[in-house]
Amino acid sequence: MERKVYEQMAQLDQRHWWFTARRRILAELIERVVQPPRGARILELGAGTGHNLSMLSRFGEVEASELDPIARKLASERLGSEVKEAALPDLSMFPTDSYDLIALLDVLEHVPDDKGSLEAIKTRLKPGGALLLTVPANPWMWTAHDVAHHHHRRYRKGEIERLARNAGYEIALLSPFNSLLFPPIAAVRLVGKLTGKDDSDDAMPGALVNKTLDTVFGLERSLIGRIPMPFGVSLVAVLRRPRS
What we know:
By secondary structure, the protein is an alpha/beta fold. About 40% of the residues lie in helices and about 20% in strands. The protein has helices at about 5-10, 15-35, 55, 70-80, 115-125, 145-150, 155-165, 180-195, 205-220, and strands at about 40-45, 60-65, 100-105, 125-135, 170-175, 235-240. A 6-stranded mixed sheet has the order 2-1-3-4-6-5, sandwiched between helices. Strand 3, helix 5 and strand 4 form a beta-alpha-beta unit.
């Protein structure tokens, strides 16, 4: 990603509604769907500035990787141990058959070889271990935001399903999310395209707006995996390595 994106992320990731509500949703899915064992061994790939590491640490011992050196330094400080350098699909620095949970949170869209990356991740999971995956959805929503974040693609639900099955995973969960806010977000994206005012501004909203968006987005923690979510800005999946 652009350096300014990491700098902005580090300033906002503890307060901005998208980060705060998303962490609550992901924590709920780990607890309810992944159900890692006590003291699980966890790996986050592409940890960015480390804004998910504290949440993941609630479920076990966490290791992490990040390619960008500035983000990796901050993530290491937040984790309290070295965050390793890794560029998917090369995971040679991590042991095989070792992790109960691997988190790949808005990372796969940055990687040219997405299929090879999913295959490499599966070999690092224990049999029965789970990959928690999030990606941006809907190719038609492509904007300057995707360009600034160096995305290669946005995904359709069927594409993730095919990638997962071709890489040998069992699908425990695959759902759109950020669904309740999808209509206004989609409208803003479409208006931006039509008016030529398509930008990548991720600025912090005012306190009231931020709180409202955090509350609305956060409601999805009780919905995903329980009721069908027909659309969303993103996709979330829990993919398991078969036990045999």
